[in-house]
Design brief:
The chain contains four helices and no strands. By secondary structure, it is mainly α. The chain has one domain. The longest helix has 31 residues. Bound molecules: zinc ion (ZN). Zinc ion binds next to loops.
Amino acid sequence: MAEKSKFSSMLNCKCPRCKEGDVFIHSAWSKRYNEMNKNCPKCGLRYEYELGFFWGAMYIGYAISVAISVTLGVATYVLLDNPDTWVYLSIIIGAILLTSRLNFRYGRMVLLYLFAPKFESPSETLRREKELTK
Ligand SMILES: [Zn+2]
């Protein structure tokens, strides 16, 4: 079987170490879209490496939102020949609301994939889990 690429694993919200375990428990369109597994169901990697690890994902989500806004603003200007301000606002706010769940997820996935190489091995994860449950 061909090895899965990092990019496709990230898009499918898979574990950054084994690329098989799901990071999120439910689908992006579920009511509980934000619930994550604490550890990878396949290899045991602890996703929240330290307390507050995912705070950084907010900045990545913000950057994704800005990129969407700028792209849609330019596209609206070019395709609709500079319409009224309410058209820009409607399109951009609508798109941001529609993609907010994906922004949340991909902000976290980008953060996980950025720092995954620094994560510990499975045996270190087990040792750390034992220490935390003492
Ligand atoms: Zn894994």
